[in-house]
Amino acid sequence: MDPPPNPNPNPTDAEPQAEAGARLAALSLRGGRDLPPDFEIHEHHLDDDDDDDEGYLTAASRGGSSTCAWKGLRDDDRDGDDVSPPSPSSSGYAGERGSSLDDDPDPEPAQDWPRDKKHLDEDDASSSWRKRKKHFFILSNSGKPIYSRYGDEHKLAGFSATLQAIISFVENSGDHIKFVRSGKHQIVFLVKGPIYLVCISCTEESYEGLRGQLELMYGQLLLILTKSVNRCFEKNPKFDMAPLLGGTDAVFLSLIHAFSWNPATFLHAYTCLPLAQSTRQAASAVLQDIADSGVLFALLMCEHKVISLVGAQKATLHPDDILLLANFILSSESFRTSESFSPICLPRYNPMAFLYAYVHFFDEHTYVTLLTTRSDAFYDLKDSRTRIQNVLLKSNVLTEVQRSLHESALHVEDLPIDPSSQSASQPQSSRDMSSQSLSSEMAIGGPAGLWHFIYKSVYLDQYVSSEFPSSISNRKQQKRLYKAYQKFYASMHDKATGPHKTQFRRDEDYVLFCWITQDFELYAAFNPLADKSQAIKMCNRVCQWVRDLENEIFVYGGSALSWQYHHCWEGE
Amino acid sequence: MGLSAAAAGDGTQLCVFDLRRGQQEGQELDKILFFHPADCPILLQLSVIGLCEGIVTFTRIFSPEEDCEVIESEKRSHVFYQAEPDIWMVLVVEKTKDNESNWRCGALQGILKEAHSLFTMFHGPIRTLLDRQPSAELARGHLRTFLTDYLSDFHVGKKIQFPTYRDSLKERGTIQMLTVPREVALEVQSLTTVLGSCLGNVTCQSLILFEDLLVSTTLPPDDTLNLYTYAVLRLTPRALSSNASSWSYLRKGTSVSAGPTSSSSNGTTAGERYHSRSRDTSPDGQNQMHHNFRPLLREKLSKGKDGFVAADFAATEVRGAVPLTPIIWFQQAEERMYLCIYQHKSLTILLLIPASSLINGEEGIAHVKKQMLENASQKIVTVEQKLTRGWGGENAYHVSGYRYLLVDPDRRVSRASPPGKVTTLAKDSLLALNRLRQEVDLEKSRYRRSDPSHDKDFEVCIRTKNNAWVIAKITRGRELYMALEKGGETLLYASTAVEKFSNRYCEGAFSTD
């Protein structure tokens, strides 16, 4: 069992020294406390593009600052008991959260939210804590708190013990508790060996949706620690796991945040950055070269979107692993500030073992991740990265990525009136022409009251979604639509009766339409007054539109990536 | 200590417990007011109630204003209903692997609500019984006989069978009405007036049923619902004949010799055992006679030669009252009334005489009955004839091509495809419909919480994997559920079908325009 990757970005630690590694290992991941002050000011980094241009150039010269940290840790099957628990002030990266983490509406909006997300002063006796809309807890089967979204885990020991008592009571009878419902509150339980995960929510999400989120929380935990952490519990049932996750608060917070904006969390598919086919091919070609030289997976990503990804022969990467990996990288500030070499586990690929991830940000948003099984591959991968970088620069890929990031999104207003006549290679250029909606009274959004859609290609395990129109401009509205989709998805994919073929749903907020075939799943949201037959026409048109654009919005078989679901950690 | 060591049988448990009792350590047993099966080991009973109480307390941390509704685990569901403040009823049902146990939480909760409403109608609120006799002997006694008799309706062989997905086109807790043409409606109205004046200066209330369908009522909706439910369970011609047949069936069919109710999984004997135990703990067992009042006991009810249904109840609620006519309590009307049941062919008349106005008990009732026969006989015969003439039989409300359920929750009225027609639906369609109803239940309670005064419209149309359409539509508070198996492929086909149905059978209530 290994500790989590260390985010220590301090350039002075650049020399890969085994001694330093051991020292850092002992620190486990204490997070923000170890960061130099200049890394804690990240409030505006997302808005400050210029900074990062320099960032990737200098980062290269910092080379391997984290390499050493992990060398010594990998096979070091420590108990972890000797790792001192983080002090309350070391509660992860709370201080360096970007302003993008605007999460759940709180009972008292604004206030110090979202900066002090953890609300360490709270515990189960605080009324503010009780009123939080969505709690996540991770605890051990002996009732020891491991993680809580809100409040200080240590103060929640009693509460944690209660949760443990409930779960164990039912477990002892040879049964497994799934959920409890009480008015608008739902308590969802997930038992994974010695680790219990609980969500207490009044967000009206479906049981299936919340359970899926707990599965991802567990996956994130495995990504950091691997499943071999179970061995610690075998040795010592009272094992305190919380210190091993010290400093990873930001990773979990970011994942929880993703539950309310990232469709990948329930679609089990990933999304790509739209790019001209030739540009993507250039990127794929160089990644493929690298993959052939002993890298297991090579991913080029822009934020959460995949630009290109290739895998060694027969190796497959599950979309959930991509999601968890991207979340881990994007929420750990250190990856952005220096090139890193970290042990990580891909829970769907192999929950028992660590891989080694070489991560390097080319600019603020774009980064390459090279995964290998070799713990000594840092310098090889560093060289590979240089090669990749050269190709990307030469073929203008990074510029194109920047352009796409700002321009290439799908807008429902651009939905072509006559799909066959549109080459649609540049959707934004046709926006003005095609925005004459079929029904002018629903001028906001796309034609016939179309507000938004998500299209998932079943074969590719990829999805594409449109931008939100002005009618769904604020976060709250977007989140509400997102939750409606989530519910809709659960309804279509019901275990006992699904998947259904089509569904039409009209409530006060939306008309939702879903269409599932062997090839694709389409989820579309319309104005609640939308006409049914017009809506159906629009859905057909969206599908045609997506097909017309597929070479740009999807990544096609860059390599022999036959996407298959692994169920490594489902069949416990 | 866990739950799975359930007593042999189907694993179904039903318990009633009072959280104001037994709060001292060692006295937990005092919380339990009823437990089925009665032969379940005490430790297991305590364990079930311990979990339920624990969860009730735990959920109140987050939602102090709202009741815990369900604990869902892999093998069972615990369905909660807080019947009265701090008095909880919990139904535990075990799941089978074949999807057959796919039920709807709301439907199971409906059973608990119904049981409690009926209990209250005959015995008054549980809390009142507990206040009257703090040892709880009285409450336990009544609950034991009443719920055991009530559960006997769900027995299929030796097992208890609660509604599953196959019943997703039924709505417990609603009344099925007979649609009556205008001229017959006038006759019924006139009959109601005559019935109302049977006592002279004080107005009597009445319910008139044709077969199992309600024709008219003078009671408020909740009271009507309770009495109607009771009538359909035990008093209508169909119910009376099944009283007889179930009796003979049991006589012939089972080797249990302890009499009819022993079908209710050793109901009487186990009940007695429980009872004697509770008497041990509370020696003050005075009101023994009341325990014999069993309005749900089938074989106590039979139709006499005079047309009145005689109830051989041993005693009534009020001491000294006549044995043959039960007094029931109407919560909404806030009144106690004697219940007289008269039957003419398919017509059942429930005449309710205010208890306060009838001083001379049995004699007074005999007088009212006489008055009723004298004044109303002819009208009863006429109404029965006219209703029979216009009656379309058990498939009267079948609409070809549709399998539907219409619910008007405000009026507590529903109408559905005949059960015989619903069984023709494929399992997949019924499962999908059941699942859809669960979703709609959740949406409805969400709407109620967000703005109780405002009806929210809602529509779902699903094309299932077996190519059926399952549909739910809520418009101005009225609900329509539907399954269409032989239909077109397009959504527009399904919409048109709903539109046609709505225009033709629901006065356009669910139409888009």
From TrEMBL, chain A:
**Chain ranges of the FUZ/MON1/HPS1 third Longin domain:** 449-548
Give residue spans, biased composition: Pro residues.
1-10
- Where's the FUZ/MON1/HPS1 second Longin domain? 294-388
Could you tell me where the Low complexity compositional bias lies?
A: 18-30, 419-438
Pfam families, from UniProt?
A: Fuz_longin_1 (PF19036), Fuz_longin_2 (PF19037), Fuz_longin_3 (PF19038)
Q: Where is this region: Disordered?
A: 1-126, 416-438
Q: Which domain of life is it from?
A: Eukaryota
Chain intervals with Basic and acidic residues compositional bias:
31-47
Instruction: List residues of the FUZ/MON1/HPS1 first Longin domain.
Output: 134-252
What GO biological process term is on the record, naming one? Answer: vesicle-mediated transport
Tell me which family the UniProt entry assigns to this protein: Belongs to the MON1/SAND family.
Q: Briefly state the protein's biological role.
A: Plays an important role in membrane trafficking through the secretory apparatus.
Protein name as catalogued: Vacuolar fusion protein MON1 homolog
Source organism (scientific name): Panicum virgatum (Blackwell switchgrass)
UniProtKB/TrEMBL annotation, chain B:
Protein name per its UniProtKB record: CCZ1/INTU/HSP4 first Longin domain-containing protein
- Using the UniProt annotation, give all residue ranges assigned to the region (Disordered): 253-290
Q: What are the recorded Gene Ontology BP terms?
A: vesicle-mediated transport
Specify the superkingdom. Answer: Eukaryota
Domain CCZ1/INTU/HSP4 first Longin: start-end pairs: 15-124
Compositional bias ranges of the Low complexity kind: 253-271
Q: Which GO terms describe its cellular component?
A: Mon1-Ccz1 complex
Q: Which family does it belong to?
A: Belongs to the CCZ1 family.
